[in-house]
Design brief:
mainly beta, two-stranded antiparallel ribbon, 1 helix, 177 residues, eight-stranded antiparallel barrel, disordered N terminus
Length: 177
């Protein structure tokens, strides 16, 4: 009887965890907007947490000065907290094994206006032969922070740089086996 209860508890825990981890239409149990759905024929390969900054520059071109995104700069961590790599301009994700994937934006959605948008990106190029080499799509979900400053960019501050903290989850997909 006790073994049956332990097995039942283990099955219940797995049924709670597995759908969020395996379903490309959810982000840690939360629905992903339909526009960010990964095309059929792809499966979740792995996911990482990002903690870093979005770097903005105050540009004063032909229009009114405005903050323009220059690059992200973030450390990537595996779900168990171990270092997994870095994220930087391109946008590029580089794993600790040296492999890289550069993404091209497909679509975006803004579930939380106080944070940078969630994104769907397709792999535009790869380098190396590690874990990033087979990535087909990347989802940026569960964002926190990272929006450009609301003030501080005017003609007197052209060229100023702002480093705005952000966090996000990045989900990497590959072709189904």
């Amino acid at each position: 009887m006790r073994a049956d209860l332990s097995l039942l508890a283990a099955c219940a825990a797995l049924s709670f965890i597995t759908p969020a981890a395996a379903d490309p239409g959810s982000a840690y149990g939360e629905p992903v907007p339909p526009a960010l759905a990964v095309p059929a024929g792809n499966e979740l390969a792995f996911e990482v947490q990002a903690d870093g900054v979005q770097i903005y520059a105050c540009t004063a071109g032909t229009s009114a000065p405005a903050w323009a995104l220059q690059a992200p700069e973030a450390k990537l961590s595996a779900t168990d907290g171990r270092s997994a790599g870095t994220h930087y301009a391109g946008p590029t994700w580089e794993a600790n094994d040296g492999s890289k994937v550069v993404g091209a934006k497909v679509e975006g959605a803004t579930p939380d206006p106080s944070s940078i948008p969630w994104l769907l990106l397709r792999a535009a190029s790869h380098a190396g032969s590690g874990r990033m080499s087979e990535v087909t799509f990347v989802q940026r979900v569960k964002t926190s922070g990272g929006n450009p400053p609301a003030t501080g960019c005017d003609a007197a501050h052209a060229g100023a740089v702002a480093r705005v903290p952000y966090q996000a989850a990045y989900r990497f997909f590959r072709k189904q086996a």
